[in-house]
């Protein structure tokens, strides 16, 4: 914690990062997702938006409901501050003196053009950690390019691995590259906090969406470097990892069955009423099953199709075979395991009151906080504020000691909103 000025945002601040102050700059998903993860673990996250250009994520959602923002901006206090003005930059630097981490997701060079690069930030606060999230990183021939998740997934080779052989590589219906970039940025922020305990100094964390998408690709690089093997899309299964696929039940539902270890294969063979297959040399080890992957899939599909999904899952569980349904979000939300673990939590909007436009008495439900810590658990203290600048006065009064006269002057000048 930056002991010079960091304070808990309220008396109920909890979590492993309680007392850590974060300034979040930037918009949309990757950088703000890092900020969300820090806030989930108890950090006081102050999100700074331009008065005339708030985060576009505020308008994202389905059916006219702008709910993407509500769960992505949870645990963040929203401040409207124009960083393109001298006064706005001075306020940011004042806030940076009190902060532990700044998270930014602008195109590389933007902070430097505004005169608030890490050279300036670290001079006023040597303990400050700057987390930079971008498409390609802060250096290299592509660094100045704008970067989105879809392109990061493509250039990293991740998109090539998705879909079915010979077909156009689809994307998952999520901004996966953004989420991966945000998660690696969060990991870097935690590592830098730990290093600061030893060195007493902050540093720059440089997280790229393209590199995050590359980093999760298991052994694809050494497979190519040593064996010349280019992993291809493999549809609903992994090539030569067998049996592990989805199989349709009698009632038309898909069930995942994963028995690609020797012991699991023997259990599945017993569940199918054919225990002799478990020790049959044609299927007894990993390579043998990989050689006969299509044959195994046909065999298991024929067996699975005799049972309803519920009966199939019951048989597999009885024999301790790894299995599970392919759920929609509607099914996920009633799943007893997720509910027993508290994975659905309410997100109240602190900026709206009865009578306000957009007020909804029913709270928004979102996904809970993971991982779960036994002693310093994080949580959702409040959902994202629907109104930009909800906490501007609160933050500037509490953190910087501004009085009403100063706030009025800054608001009249358009520096804050």
UniProtKB/TrEMBL annotation:
The keyword GTP-binding does not apply. GO terms for molecular function: transferase activity. SUPFAM superfamilies: CoA-transferase family III (CaiB/BaiF). The keyword Amino-acid biosynthesis does not apply. Keywords: Transferase. It holds the Pfam family CoA_transf_3. InterPro entries: CoA-transferase_III, CoA-Trfase_fam_III, CoA-Trfase_III_dom3_sf, CoA-Trfase_III_dom_1_sf. Belongs to the CoA-transferase III family. PANTHER family: L-CARNITINE COA-TRANSFERASE (PTHR48228:SF6), SUCCINYL-COA--D-CITRAMALATE COA-TRANSFERASE (PTHR48228). This is CoA-transferase. It comes from Gordonia rhizosphera NBRC 16068.
């Amino acid at each position: 914690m930056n002991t010079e000025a960091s304070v808990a945002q309220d008396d109920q601040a909890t979590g492993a990062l309680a007392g850590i102050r974060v300034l979040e700059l930037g918009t949309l998903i990757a950088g703000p997702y890092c900020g969300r993860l820090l806030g989930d673990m108890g950090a006081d996250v102050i999100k700074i938006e331009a008065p005339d250009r708030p985060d576009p994520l505020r308008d994202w959602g389905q059916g006219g409901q702008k709910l993407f923002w509500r769960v992505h901006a949870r645990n963040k206090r929203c401040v409207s501050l124009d960083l393109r003005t001298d006064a706005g930059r001075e306020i940011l630097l004042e806030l940076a003196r009190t902060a532990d981490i700044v998270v930014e997701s602008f195109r590389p060079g933007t902070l430097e053009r505004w005169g608030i690069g890490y050279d300036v930030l670290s001079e006023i606060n040597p303990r400050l950690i700057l987390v930079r999230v971008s498409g390609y990183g802060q250096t290299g021939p592509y660094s100045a390019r704008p970067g989105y998740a879809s392109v990061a997934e493509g250039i990293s080779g991740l998109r090539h691995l998705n879909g079915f052989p010979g077909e156009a590589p689809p994307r998952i219906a999520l901004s996966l590259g953004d989420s991966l970039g945000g998660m690696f940025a969060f990991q870097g922020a935690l590592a830098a906090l730990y290093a600061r305990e030893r060195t007493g100094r902050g540093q720059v964390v440089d997280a790229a969406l393209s590199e995050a998408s590359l980093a999760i690709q298991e052994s694809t690089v050494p497979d190519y470097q040593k064996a010349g093997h280019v992993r291809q899309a493999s549809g609903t299964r992994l090539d030569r990892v067998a049996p592990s696929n989805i199989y349709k039940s009698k009632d038309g539902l898909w069930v995942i069955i994963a028995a690609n270890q020797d012991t699991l294969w023997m259990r599945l063979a017993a569940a199918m009423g054919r225990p002799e297959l478990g020790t049959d040399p044609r299927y007894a080890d990993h390579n043998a099953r990989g050689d006969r992957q299509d044959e195994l899939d046909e065999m298991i599909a024929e067996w699975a199709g005799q049972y309803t999904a519920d009966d199939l899952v019951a048989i597999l569980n009885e024999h301790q075979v790894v299995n599970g349904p392919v759920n929609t979000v509607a099914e996920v939300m009633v799943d007893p395991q997720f509910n027993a673990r508290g994975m659905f939590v309410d997100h109240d909007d602190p900026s709206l009151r009865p009578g306000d436009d957009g007020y909804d008495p029913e709270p928004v439900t979102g996904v809970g906080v993971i991982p779960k810590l036994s002693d310093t658990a994080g949580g959702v203290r409040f959902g994202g504020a629907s109104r930009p600048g909800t906490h501007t006065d609160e933050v500037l009064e509490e953190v910087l000691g501004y009085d009403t006269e100063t706030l009025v002057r800054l608001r009249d000048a358009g520096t804050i909103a």
